[in-house]
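Morning F.,

Quick status update on the modeling queue. The single chain you submitted on Monday has been processed. Sequence for confirmation:
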Amino acid sequence: MNRKILQLAIPNITSNITVPPLGMVDMVIVGHMGNKQYIGAVAVGAAIFDLLYWNFSFLRMGTSGFAAQAYGRRNPSEAILILGRSVIVGLAIAITLVALQQPMYKLAAYFIDASEGVEEFSHTYFSILIWGTPATLTLYSLKG
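Structure tokens below.
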């Protein structure tokens, strides 16, 4: 019984451990570019995306619960349908976020109150990272 639990838990734990180093890679790269505003921009952009993606963690947690129930009932076709629905919901949300990226950034920038240079660079950083939202939300569904 414990072995089966570990087989399910270890991949999930590993995937959660790998998230923070991805942001650190961006920070290391911009840290060598010689402008401290770049570091501020990455910090602002990362804060926005942490909050944004956290709001959609239900894709992972909800999918996980329903998939576990389907697995317990030994119904793999239901598990596949659950995954498919979760991916469709995630992609619909991602397309909406990409479409609304400008007003979304303006709202976030209003609350963050960064300096003019940091805000300019963080907007560029945000405008690039927003295109990864479909992949990120799809991964949330797959992790579930």
